[in-house]
Amino acid sequence: MINKRVADADEAIRDIIDGQTIMLGGFGLCGIPEKCIAALVKKGVKELTCISNNAGVDDFGIGLLLKTRQVKKMVSSYVGENAEFERQLLSGELEVELIPQGTLATRCMAAGYGMPVIYTPAGVGTEVAEGKETRNFNGKDYLMEYAFEADFAIVKAWKGDTAGNLVFRSTSRNFNPVMAMAGKITIAEVEELVEPGELDPDHIHTPGVYVHRIFQGSGYEKRIEQRTVRPRN
């Protein structure tokens, strides 16, 4: 069994270079690869195309890469919490492709399954459909969308083993598992790293065959994007 463990985030992202396309897992600020993002900021790679459900916030997540102008293009479904993203979009500094959330997830899944395209009714008759092929199946129109092609997929799991098997918790399962399947090289950071055989096979969400590098991070912030509490009586 191949040991895929690397020392840290710096080693995990060692061969990411300018101009590449990177998938970044997570949902909101839940389950995002904090340590790899920090390492990318430190390394200073630029002209990146980032595929992620969201764009982080101004001082956290992908927002850190936007702040340092390392992102050329964002491919996302929700971008409403980042003022710097908004500024760069409106000024024309940043290319943006907004995608319906289900389509984003399914294009990731298609890449993992080896499917070149999917057909979806989402976006038919809207600006999303401009320039795209439409086909009719059983009287209903569908858009043809291409599977993503990402040089790297970077995900964050709760627990993993040195063979690359991953276990996610709760909301972090929204995009991390499908992105883990989809990258040409998949990097996983985990809160706890164990030896093969220590994970219950029934609890593994991503088999190690999809993962190329894995490391254990520490000190995760786990921020809340929008804290909402009941008013005191």
TrEMBL record:
GO terms for molecular function: succinyl-CoA:3-oxo-acid CoA-transferase activity. Pfam families: CoA_trans. The keyword Transferase applies. Keywords: Transferase. Its EC number is 2.8.3.5. InterPro entries: 3-oxoacid_CoA-transf_A, CoA_trans_fam_I, CoA_transf_BS, NagB/RpiA_transferase-like. PANTHER family: ACETATE COA-TRANSFERASE SUBUNIT ALPHA (PTHR13707:SF60), KETOACID-COENZYME A TRANSFERASE (PTHR13707). Belongs to the 3-oxoacid CoA-transferase subunit A family. This is 3-oxoacid CoA-transferase subunit A. It comes from Pedobacter cryoconitis.
